[in-house]
Design a protein that fits this description.
about 190 residues; about 75% helix; disordered N terminus
Length: about 190
C-alpha cells in the first residue's frame, strides 16, 4: 500500500514522456487577471469639485432659481462636477432644493457609470443613492398613509355629521312627544275635574 503513490508517480512520468493524452485535464497556468488601474481622486479633481461646490453655494444664496437652471444645463451637457453638486445640494433646510428625489436618483445612477469618478466618490455616491431610494420609498409610504388618514378623517366627519343630524331629529321627535304628552295630561286633568 505504501508503494501505491510511487506507482502513480511512475505512471504519470511514463505517460507524460510518451506524450499520451492524460485521462484528466492538464492543469493550466492561471492567466493573471487584467488589472484595471484604480480610479484615484486626484488633488486637482478634488479642488475642482470643491470649487464647484463653493461657487454653487455662493450663487445659490444670491439667485436660487438661476443657479439651479445653470447647473442643470451644465449637467445636461455632461459635466459630472455639476451633476455631483446638483445631486448633493442640501442647504440649511436639509432638503435638495433644485431637484426632486426622482431626479436625484437618476443623476446618482448616471454618476455610478461615470469612468472619471474616483472610487472614494463612487462609494459615497452608492451610499447616497441607497439613502435616496429609501427616502423615496418612505415618502411614498407616508403619502399613501396620509391619503388613508384623510379618507378616514372624511368618513369620520361624515359619520359625525350624520350622527349630529340623527341627534337633532331625535330631539325634535322627543320635543313633539313631550308636547303631545303635555296635551294628554291637560286633557286628562280636565276630564277628572
Amino acid at each position: 500500500m505504501k508503494c501505491l503513490p510511487y506507482f502513480y508517480y511512475i505512471l504519470f512520468l511514463s505517460l507524460s514522456a510518451c506524450q499520451v493524452p492524460l485521462p484528466w485535464p492538464a492543469i493550466e497556468e492561471p492567466t493573471p487577471p487584467i488589472e484595471q488601474e484604480p480610479r484615484q481622486l486626484t488633488p486637482s479633481q478634488l479642488e475642482q469639485l470643491m470649487a464647484y461646490s463653493a461657487n454653487f453655494t455662493s450663487d445659490y444664496a444670491k439667485e436660487p432659481k438661476n443657479t439651479c437652471a445653470k447647473y442643470k444645463k451644465l449637467h445636461q451637457q455632461g459635466d459630472w462636477f455639476a451633476s455631483w453638486v446638483l445631486a448633493y445640494n442640501t442647504p440649511k433646510s436639509g432638503r435638495n432644493t433644485c431637484l426632486k428625489t426622482k431626479e436625484i436618483i437618476s443623476i446618482l445612477t448616471a454618476l455610478e457609470t461615470n469612468k472619471q469618478l474616483a472610487t472614494e466618490l463612487l462609494w459615497f455616491n452608492q451610499y447616497y443613492l441607497q439613502l435616496n431610494k429609501t427616502l423615496k420609498s418612505k415618502s411614498r409610504r407616508i403619502y399613501r398613509l396620509q391619503r388613508i388618514i384623510n379618507k378616514n378623517k372624511q368618513q369620520l366627519d361624515d359619520r359625525q355629521l350624520e350622527n349630529q343630524q340623527q341627534i337633532e331629529d331625535l330631539q325634535l321627535e322627543n320635543q313633539d312627544i313631550k308636547e303631545k304628552l303635555d296635551a294628554l295630561k291637560a286633557i286628562e286633568t280636565s276630564i277628572h275635574q
